[in-house]
Design brief:
The chain has 363 residues and is of the alpha+beta class. Helices cover 59% and strands 12% of the residues. A hairpin with a 3-residue loop joins strand 6 and strand 7.
Length: 363
């Protein structure tokens, strides 16, 4: 078994990795990182292989720390990819030297673990690099429009980092690093649409039209499901009553609801489900997005709609989405509100007027 081989030949694998780092052109990894990080990673890798783990939390945490340390020491993302690629090559070469056979299943698990590690390190590297740039730009007094553009650049930069990792051939596009690329590109597309809708609101451009809410939700669900799948979050779209019509600026309303869904995907807990549903009455249409983020600590929801307000550990983005959502809904003669589900999650509601059904003519 591969986990036994790694445990028994741990020192030989570490020596082989050191030799590869020493022979590498360009900046070399710090000796402390090799001496301290590699043995820990090999132990975690052997444990994941022994337990047949699809994803190892220990490896993920180490990868995030590795990306953080390399950024602090001035290295590029290629260093991240090379470090984990060296581990794979060293294990394979030591196995060949010792005439030890690695089964197809073990090799597949090894590559999956390394792919997860690369994806985690690349994501953390890009996140901290982007945040450092953003802090510098805020210090220089850039306006909000510049921050939107910066956020798009951040997403594309992370996508480029993931693409560079994929180009090395050490990981496949169908794995975790490919997911980082896909999620970043999806985020860039969504933010572009959001920014265009924001500009329309700021310029007072308003193009209301009447359309069935059922068709609107069907079209929205296609894009939302793709993003949910990329994040590994189940999305449940409830059936919508036929014949219900609203009047709104469709582009702005799309950006509003997608923003609520993206927030839900971002903050809901692992293994939980995000729900999109529509409720109706004779006069109102309620579009609701429910997550399972665990609820707000103090139960207060009024501050969520303030600009630059962010909750939770994930602080990616600018904290402007809910403030934009409120402006967008109000521009369409509606209102938006949230309610806290204590220790469970949050429900965000877009409350819009319903187009009256024409009265049937009487004979």
């Amino acid at each position: 078994m591969l986990h036994q081989f790694i445990a028994m030949n741990r020192e030989a694998i570490i020596r082989r990795c050191r030799a590869k780092v020493a022979a590498r052109s360009g900046p070399a990894a710090p000796e402390a990182g090799i001496d301290q990080g590699l043995p820990v990673f090999l132990d975690q890798l052997a444990d994941a292989l022994r337990r047949h783990l699809i994803s190892s939390p220990d490896i993920a945490r180490s990868a995030v720390q590795h990306g953080h340390e390399l950024l602090l020491q001035g290295f590029t993302v290629s260093q991240v990819v090379h470090d984990y690629g060296d581990v794979c090559q060293a294990i394979t070469e030591v196995a060949v030297d010792m005439n030890a056979r690695i089964s197809t299943d073990d090799f597949r698990m090894l590559n999956r673990c390394l792919d997860d590690a690369i994806a985690g390190a690349v994501t953390q590297f890009g996140r901290e690099q982007n945040q450092a740039i953003l802090n510098a730009e805020i210090a220089r007094g850039h306006e909000r429009a510049g921050l939107f553009a910066h956020e798009i650049r951040n997403l594309l930069n992370t996508a480029l980092l993931a693409f560079e990792a994929l180009k090395t051939g050490n990981v496949g596009v169908g794995g975790s690093t490919g997911t980082v690329l896909h999620r970043s590109l999806m985020g860039a597309c969504a933010l572009t649409g959001h920014s265009l809708a924001e500009i329309r609101l700021a310029q007072g451009v308003h193009n209301p039209e009447q359309f069935p809410i059922a068709r609107f939700i069907d079209e929205l669900a296609l894009a939302a499901t793709m993003e949910a799948n990329a994040r590994g979050i189940p999305l449940r779209v409830m059936s919508v009553e036929d014949g219900v019509v609203i009047e709104a600026d469709r582009q702005v309303l799309t950006a509003v609801v997608m923003n609520l869904l993206q927030n839900a995907f971002k903050f809901t807990r692992a293994g939980t489900t995000v729900v999109l549903r529509v409720g109706t009455s004779a006069e109102r249409v309620l579009i609701e997005v429910e997550d399972e983020c665990g609820g707000l600590p103090n139960g207060s929801v009024s501050e969520l709609f303030r600009p630059f307000e962010q909750r939770g550990a994930d602080r990616t983005g600018l904290g402007l989405g809910l403030a934009f959502s409120r402006r967008g809904v109000e521009a369409n003669n509606g209102r938006i509100y949230a309610r806290n589900l204590s220790h469970r999650g949050c429900v965000f509601t877009v409350d819009l007027p319903r187009v009256p059904v024409p009265a049937m003519a009487t004979v």
